[in-house]
Write a structure and sequence with these properties.
65% of the residues lie in helices and 0% in strands. The chain is mostly helical and 160 residues long. The protein starts with 22 loop residues before the first helix and ends with a helix.
Length: 160
């Protein structure tokens, strides 16, 4: 029998609860819905984010980080306008917070600052305005990645 206090979350979707549960399957269970990773009670945008996060986390972190928020996801399905706002919020976070953090790790501080300086992304117009900075950052990031792979390949060749 499932208990939220002892529940362990697994990666991926499952045919039945006996096979395991991911975060969104656990939300369906908590809400008394049929087994599914797309419960009716949850915002489709939030659910998509949580499914992706669930599958990206390590086994050690998945349950620790996601289990406490599962009850909060029940009742998040509201209006289409709310989900559109949520989608733009996620896009803005990815472009102006997440990407700059990774760019800084790669030593691409100038591109990180440029993305952080773009206007908040709240709709298609502001997304188009951010595109030039995003394109330059992507191009610089790809060049850095290619250089890192080349260096790793050279080091591996020298070691062999």
């Amino acid at each position: 029998m499932l208990s939220l206090d002892t529940l362990t979350l697994d990666r991926g979707a499952h045919d039945t609860r006996d096979d395991g549960v991911c975060a969104m399957e656990a939300v369906a269970w908590l809400a008394g819905e049929p087994h599914s990773d797309t419960p009716e009670c949850a915002s489709p945008v939030i659910a998509a984010f949580v499914r992706s996060w669930n599958d990206a986390l390590s086994d050690a972190d998945r349950t620790r980080l996601l289990r406490p928020i599962l009850p909060l996801l029940i009742g998040t399905r509201t209006t289409q306008d709310d989900d559109e706002a949520r989608a733009w919020l996620a896009t803005d976070w990815l472009a102006r917070v997440c990407a700059p953090a990774w760019l800084r790790i790669a030593g691409l501080d100038e591109h990180a600052r440029a993305l952080e300086a773009t206007a908040r992304i709240v709709d298609a117009v502001t997304a188009r305005a951010a595109q030039p900075a995003l394109h330059r950052a992507r191009k610089a990031g790809a060049a850095a990645r290619d250089a890192a792979w080349a260096a790793a390949g050279a080091a591996a060749g020298a070691a062999a």
